[in-house]
Automatic annotation (TrEMBL):
Listed transmembrane segments: none
Gene3D superfamilies attached to this UniProt entry: HAD superfamily/HAD-like, Putative phosphatase, domain 2
Domain of life: Eukaryota
Any one GO MF annotation of this record: phosphatase activity
Pfam families referenced in this protein's UniProt entry, alphabetically: HAD_2
SUPFAM superfamilies: HAD-like
Cited InterPro entries: HAD-like_sf, HAD-SF_hydro_IA, HAD_2, HAD_sf, PGP-like_dom2
Protein name, as recorded: Uncharacterized protein
Length: 284
């Protein structure tokens, strides 16, 4: 196994992996800047009630955790003089106001455009799917801008799996692997005649959150972790543990599903700009 240093990241390349045939994308904080919007919405409410802005030490515990923005960790820290129900209502009002202004993150447009016509080194078409914990109502708000509608046209309608998809078991959000396995199923169910089913080992997941990386590892898929700069700072020195899925932010058991530190299944990148396709057997 060869390790190649690139700025602060380590890209681990190993010949034991098959070329990638499917790329599965998270959305929030990976494709569009919704994490900054979530922070803005929370901070506007905190400021209204004389509370300080949410620090990354707290936000890092919320990212990628379903329902965490109105959960115990946040409210124990925030100590707001309002009920959780009122906070939830005010948060929804803020989101209605700000979500339509989400923007694509650096490198996203080029990456999706490239992958829609890419093959791997074996000549197999590379397929893409979306696996986002966002519920449909929020998803539609976030992609309502024409620029974002065009961006998400890269994902076929039947290859989008959202957090409230009825095919997903309730209570099995990330870090459980279900959403990524369902996304793979949507691809396999719509392959062209002559294409063999894609295995989890032939999938590459793109994630920004720590629970999302863990979900990918539990699904037995390779993963690219592209954290927000603030989140990356919180996990400095723990990158390989994150890539192994072994942070345990939301314990769900079944630790046999997790990876091992430095096993080569994960890659840490600062952004999606200048994506290293060849490291994953993708030909462009």
């Amino acid at each position: 196994m060869d390790s190649v240093k690139k700025s602060e990241m380590t890209l681990t390349v190993t010949a034991s992996f098959p070329p990638v045939r499917a790329c599965i994308f998270d959305m929030d904080g990976l494709l569009i800047n919704t994490e900054d919007m979530y922070t803005l919405c929370a901070n506007n409410i905190l400021e209204k009630y004389g509370r300080p802005p949410i620090p990354w030490s707290i936000k890092a515990k919320l990212m990628g955790v379903p329902g965490s923005s109105t959960g115990e960790v946040f409210h124990s820290w925030a100590q707001l003089p309002i009920s959780r129900e009122q906070y939830d209502q005010e948060q929804k009002e803020q989101q209605m106001l700000h979500f339509p202004h989400c923007k694509p993150l650096p490198g996203v447009e080029e990456l999706l455009l490239t992958l829609t016509s890419a093959n791997n080194v074996n000549g197999d078409k590379v397929h893409i799917a979306l696996a986002s914990s966002s519920i449909k109502e929020n998803f539609q708000l976030k992609v309502s801008k024409l620029e974002n509608q065009k961006l998400f046209n890269a994902f076929l309608e039947h290859r989008r799996v959202l957090g409230d998809d009825p095919r997903l078991q309730k209570g099995r959000g990330k870090p459980a692997p279900d959403i990524f396995l369902m996304a793979l199923k949507t691809i396999n169910d719509s392959l062209s005649e002559g294409e063999s089913p894609i295995t989890p080992e032939e999938c590459l997941v793109f994630e920004d959150s720590v629970p999302g990386v863990e979900a990918a590892r539990r699904a037995k898929m390779r993963v690219v972790w592209v954290p927000h700069a603030g989140l990356a700072t919180e996990y400095r020195g723990l990158e390989q543990k994150v890539l192994a899925g072994r942070i345990g932010l939301v314990p769900i058991g079944d630790e046999h599903q997790l990876g091992e530190v430095d096993d080569g299944w994960g890659t840490h990148l600062p952004s999606l700009e200048n994506f290293p396709y060849r490291n994953f057997g993708i030909y462009v």
